[in-house]
Amino acid sequence: MKRTLMISAMALAACTLATAQVKEDFKPASTNQQGKQYPMVNSERVVRAQVTAPDAKYVQFDIGGVKYDLVKDENGVWTGDTAPQDEGFHYYQIWVDGAATPDPNSLYYYGASRWGSGIDIPAHDEDFYAVKNVPHGDVREVYYYSKTNDAMRHCFIYTPASYDTDLTKRYPVLYLQHGGGENEYGWAVQGKTGLIMDNLIAAGLAEEFIIVMDNGTWSMPRPAAGAAPQARPQAPQGQRPQAPQGGQRPQGGGPMGMPSGWADGFMNTLVNDIIPMVDAKYRTIADREHRAMAGLSMGAMQTKSITMAKPEVFSKIGLFSGGTISVDEANSTPGFREAYDLVFVSFGSRETENPRGGVDPGKITADLKASGMNAHYYVSPETAHEWQTWRRSLYQFAQLLFK
Amino acid sequence: MKRTLMISAMALAACTLATAQVKEDFKPASTNQQGKQYPMVNSERVVRAQVTAPDAKYVQFDIGGVKYDLVKDENGVWTGDTAPQDEGFHYYQIWVDGAATPDPNSLYYYGASRWGSGIDIPAHDEDFYAVKNVPHGDVREVYYYSKTNDAMRHCFIYTPASYDTDLTKRYPVLYLQHGGGENEYGWAVQGKTGLIMDNLIAAGLAEEFIIVMDNGTWSMPRPAAGAAPQARPQAPQGQRPQAPQGGQRPQGGGPMGMPSGWADGFMNTLVNDIIPMVDAKYRTIADREHRAMAGLSMGAMQTKSITMAKPEVFSKIGLFSGGTISVDEANSTPGFREAYDLVFVSFGSRETENPRGGVDPGKITADLKASGMNAHYYVSPETAHEWQTWRRSLYQFAQLLFK
């Protein structure tokens, strides 16, 4: 009896403590739909969610691999708090009696292989991707025909502010790839590529260049003979790229959910269709010295595979949360050392705390630098394999490009 | 007993008949997320929805003002059919035990004052907005500063395919507005403006012009003194425009959900900020002869109000599902007859079947034409106050513009 009472008293104390600890300075998330108050975030990065579901038995808020039970009030409104989240952008979803749905309060993003909810937790450095009164470039939605895929494809292309006013200027190009389970919307929307570049250029911290954000995992099936090529504007439903028929195989293991042919299938489309389209339609400087490739996670592995296979096409490399280039790899890849004048490697700090296989990407990159290559290493503080790591990586990488 | 049996037999017959009547030629909707099979649509435009909700008591598919009860199978998967829907695009939602959520299977669109599910029912004339292997223009996402709102704003701008290759050419501009409860994404996404124009231009049916799609219902609150202007990239959360301080009041009644100040607040932003920004940044022909305004529903009423107040700014008018211009209005508006060389009025046939107040917009427009103005009237067959009406209206209107 005494023991039970003690436990109850302890539980009550813990509960009271927990309640007292939540700072009541919640504000609506910047990723909420217009006029929606929830989810909110407080200064300790706790998320408070709220969903109306009067007849539901249980409602959960599912973020960062944890399902938080919400509690129902007398009006059928379910509310609850999460543990503190990392700064930056996270995908999440709601569960209503076993149905996984988007939160009706949030904006929607493509990632984790679905369009669904996302939330941006305010970050101490969020100023670098804020919407400011500076000259803004355009993020263009572009359709084009691919011979490799015999289909129409869809990408986003950033052109800097000066592009539309200085018609004599030509620009270098960065090809920038999303990760597994994502698509061309990743960098254009939650990646905030246009805003990051506008702010960097306005501050005099980066050169002006074009950025091409394409879909690295999709190519359309061949249409029937005589049929017009078709595409799905927002979410192409075609088959994955075919397995490689030869050429460079990816180095190292791939992340979860990576489709077969992820590097070679996209390499052919990139080199034979995308780059020629971009060089024909836009005022690029169409040579390898003015062409870079970077990507995150699966996109980093595609970048490594493609740039190692195509030193005649690219001269700068960015690998965000998706591998390194070792001295041995640089030495054993024909033309690599001569071709590349910039290798940038980055990770979130939570990724490097528990490196797979005990490999230290910082040491590998330092060794590459010591061997004579222009190698840079960046670790995003207190972020994981998520978009805040990649926003910061682009911010760092862009300052090194085409200078 | 006999009667009960008869009724049962009849009910069984009706049930069997109903089942037999549903054509089993369902295909995934074009508006589904990548890889998602449901919702499907058959050749009779019946929608078959499916949602996984193992612990739910009831699940409903809510489209066209009707909630269809789905039926649960042994795996907790709920399925059901709707009545036949009209051709074209419709907003819809799912109800799970009283929670209104987006369908996790669909893509998401802004309308009905929320981001949520939409479905495109195949249309007999859908070829005019298909993705084809023709030269494509770009739909650009643009941020700009508004003095009127003292804030950053966000719009979409279509530039035709030739814009980026023929750098000496200048273009007329159409300012194209969404309806109530919608925003600048309406014409750019579900409106399929870029695809409609690309196909028209490739077929030689329309002149090339720029199209500006802005947000007609939103302006940001003034920030505190010294604070940097900020904007919400995807779903601005600012206050509605202020009530008009004078100037032209809207003619006629407004649609449901129309905010106060919807015409005058936006007119100031349009004339003082948006048009100067567009004429400065893009290669426009910056005179009234080469400037048109059109809109749907609330956007049509804004168009009427703004063009009647500003004959020195515009020369062509398109009103889609949002009013007419009568002979009396044309005669009593100073400068109107001299300024405008095109007035286009359109509706969906289901709107004109039961015209409000017994007014016949076709007769009003025919009278305007008989009075000497270049007036055109179009009725979209078998569509209501929805996007297929407006896609078709743009398709018709664009063929008359700047010729």
- Indicate the CATH class of the largest domain in chain A: Alpha Beta
Sheet bearing the most strands of chain A, described?
8 strands, mixed
Largest interface, and how many residues on either side? A-B, 71 and 70 residues
The computed structural class of chain A is alpha+beta
Task: Note poorly predicted spans of chain A.
Answer: 1-18, 219-260
Description:
The structure is a homodimer of 403-residue chains. Chain A is an alpha+beta fold and 403 residues long. Chain A has 10 helices and 19 strands. In chain A, a hairpin with a 5-residue loop joins β2 and β3 (47-52). In chain A, α3 runs parallel beside α10. Chains A and B meet through β9, β11, β12 and α3 of A and β9, β11, β12 and α3 of B. β12 of chain A pairs antiparallel with β12 of chain B, so a sheet runs across the interface.
